[in-house]
What we know:
The protein is 39% helix and 26% strand. By secondary structure, it is α+β, with helices and mostly antiparallel strands. The chain has 2 domains: 3-159, Ribosomal Protein S5, domain 2 (2-Layer Sandwich); 165-316, 2-Layer Sandwich (Alpha-Beta Plaits), CATH 3.30.70.890. The longest helix has 19 residues, at 177-195. Residues 221-234 have low confidence and may be disordered.
Amino acid sequence: xxxxxxxxxxxxxxxxxxxxxxxxxxxxxxxxxxxxxxxxxxxxxxxxxxxxxxxxxxxxxxxxxxxxxxxxxxxxxxxxxxxxxxxxxxxxxxxxxxxxxxxxxxxxxxxxxxxxxxxxxxxxxxxxxxxxxxxxxxxxxxxxxxxxxxxxxxxxxxxxxxxxxxxxxxxxxxxxxxxxxxxxxxxxxxxxxxxxxxxxxxxxxxxxxxxxxxxxxxxxxxxxxxxxxxxxxxxxxxxxxxxxxxxxxxxxxxxxxxxxxxxxxxxxxxxxxxxxxxxxxxxxxxxxxxxxxxxxxxxxxxxxxxxxxxxxxxxxxxxxxxxxxx
Length: 326
């Protein structure tokens, strides 16, 4: 019998870009947060060999370039299994929108395939496969609120935030992540040349700022003053705003795609306590105090022709409790 599983999206709560590493990747700092929006993955195994990807969205590849395909190959090899694997992807999430859809699909495929084969990988094997296939995959092995460092693939579970109403808006704009990184490097190079020195040219300053901001946010402090007892659970959004957490990609993406900046402004005008680009975009999201406020903001964007959905954050317990369908 096929296994059906939810493939949840993520947003980035802050993202700082550091120096380019020897392996070509940039050093990153971010907080990942899973949200309720999801695709559905259906995995079925049979006798034989081969991998088949089915998806009605023409933007989703059906060959070995698909992350689900690449994960499946590695899982079969690690478990020393032979099987014909059929993977059906029902897309609700945008392709390349900054929500980690492809990475989430791959991890969902891994988990569903283990169930179909009746055998589980060791945790270290799961993580190794996820890291090998892509930087965003490991976060979906954790779920909830997660600290990401390295190139984003080193993940550490944080204390979950309470559920927060959220609006996710994804204008039909294709933002190239490699180009966004290249533009970031060029921006720092221009700053270095104009100042004649290496001040923050390698991004170390922005990494340090992120560490300080996240620490302040997670500790519930403002200007070094701890929040009053009981306030932490009630005001996570206010703590977030005060901490000054930002996404560095906005500095290079917004000037090229001002319509994304406009979406952020709409969210803020509609009452978002925090709004930001997710990853390199094109998704822009806003966090709201109530579901009603989020729904109103989503309707406002839809009226302007911007695809938007009201949703909420998903903590780690819910992520793993509700991932299975049927």
